[in-house]
């Protein structure tokens, strides 16, 4: 059973501040060093006579031994561990009381970390709300992406047409310079918004070396994950930017539910997520669990208004999830388009639609020696 806040740690701190050894203080108090050690580690109560002796020896007021600070610290810890993120921790009030008694400095560090987390979380949510609802930010991001595409396109034209006349080349260069200046302005506006929302740092590369250094962090993410897990399963889903905090929180819950770690690597500016599900294929059931967790993450993306894929496309892993995003009518129309361009089902057969339809419904279907293609798929 936990006791109320004890005072041994205060005696230990006073002794160390005055550079007094435990043996020396024990002798002055008339007790053994081992008993003083127990007191300092809150395993024995500091009796009133001993408290008065310590007060006289160190010339401190008795108020220095008040447990008011510990009571306040305990309240702060209770508030921190009342956060939903700790709801499965099983930590009780008595556990926190014991922790305050044993190591108040560590408790203060925990409280400081929690408050920093709350501040950062509030900043992210505020920024996410602006990304979702602020027309200026949405238009700025759209302008930035448009300018990037324009600059890249004109640069590729110059690169691919070395025989272009001097006058035409100068026109293209002028466009690139103009668009680059507009891009710099757009980036500056977004940087100011980020700073106003509490961004920890905003950096722009000033040289090719710095640019490559920025990219090195992103490119090293996947190899780094390979160092901490035998296998990982890379997902690809896209969500509205403003839903990022919600989705990351739900993914943490799914990670705990399936007992698998998830490393989040993404380019959040366009809402494209690449959760890496860490597993060990040598452990029975982990591959299947990773696939199920991946499916739940993709369903979550659709649930918040996103899509099943941002870059990688739909294949066997996402085929059976198509109905979470499209109605049966949608899928039939898509299959009709495929039939028009691929009447012989040669292009990625059986990799996009969860249900294949007979030719009477959607187009021709080749039956060879009485065997239907892709017999594992259900048919209309």
Characterization of this structure:
The structure is a single chain. The protein is mainly alpha-helical and 380 residues long. The protein folds into 4 domains: 8-110, 434 Repressor (Amino-terminal Domain) (Orthogonal Bundle), CATH 1.10.260; 134-200, Helix Hairpins (Orthogonal Bundle); 215-315, Alpha-Beta Plaits, CATH 3.30.70; 326-380, no CATH class. 59% of the residues lie in helices and 5% in strands. Strands 1, 2, 3 and 4 form a 4-stranded antiparallel β-sheet that branches. A hairpin with a 4-residue loop joins strand 3 (262-267) and strand 4 (272-279). Helix 5 crosses helix 7 (104-133) and helix 8 runs antiparallel to helix 9 (166-196). Residues 1-5 have low confidence and may be disordered.
């Amino acid at each position: 059973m936990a006791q109320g806040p004890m005072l041994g740690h205060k005696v230990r701190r006073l002794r160390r501040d005055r550079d007094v050894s435990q043996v020396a203080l024990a002798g002055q108090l008339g007790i053994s060093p081992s008993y003083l050690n127990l007191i300092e580690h809150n395993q024995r109560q500091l009796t009133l006579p001993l408290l008065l002796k310590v007060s006289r020896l160190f010339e401190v007021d008795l108020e220095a031994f008040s447990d008011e600070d510990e009571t306040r610290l305990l309240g702060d810890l209770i508030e921190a561990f009342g956060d939903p993120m700790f709801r499965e921790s099983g930590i009780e009030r008595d556990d926190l009381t014991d922790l305050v008694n044993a190591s108040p400095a560590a408790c203060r560090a925990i409280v400081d970390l929690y408050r920093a987390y709350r501040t950062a979380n509030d900043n992210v949510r505020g920024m996410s709300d602006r990304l979702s609802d602020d027309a200026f930010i949405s238009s700025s991001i759209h302008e930035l992406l448009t300018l990037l595409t324009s600059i890249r396109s004109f640069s590729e034209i110059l690169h691919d047409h070395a025989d272009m006349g001097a006058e035409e080349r100068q026109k293209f260069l002028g466009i690139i310079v103009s668009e680059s200046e507009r891009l710099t302005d757009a980036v500056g506006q977004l940087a100011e918004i980020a700073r106003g929302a509490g961004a920890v740092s905003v950096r722009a590369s000033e040289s090719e070396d710095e640019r490559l250094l920025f990219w090195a962090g992103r490119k090293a993410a996947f190899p780094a994950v390979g160092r901490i897990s035998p296998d990982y399963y890379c997902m690809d889903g896209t969500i509205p930017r403003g839903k990022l905090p919600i989705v990351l929180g739900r993914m943490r819950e799914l990670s705990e539910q399936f007992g698998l770690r998830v490393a989040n690597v993404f380019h959040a500016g366009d809402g494209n997520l690449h959760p890496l599900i860490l597993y060990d294929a040598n452990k029975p059931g982990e591959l299947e669990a990773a696939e199920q967790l991946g499916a739940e993450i993709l369903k979550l993306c659709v649930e918040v208004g996103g899509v099943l894929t941002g870059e990688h496309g739909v294949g066997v892993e996402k085929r059976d999830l198509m109905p979470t995003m499209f109605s049966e009518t949608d899928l039939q129309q898509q299959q009709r388009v495929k039939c028009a361009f691929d009447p012989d089902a040669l292009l990625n057969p059986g990799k996009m639609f969860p249900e294949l339809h007979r030719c009477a419904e959607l187009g021709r279907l080749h039956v060879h020696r009485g065997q239907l293609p892709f017999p594992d798929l259900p048919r209309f």
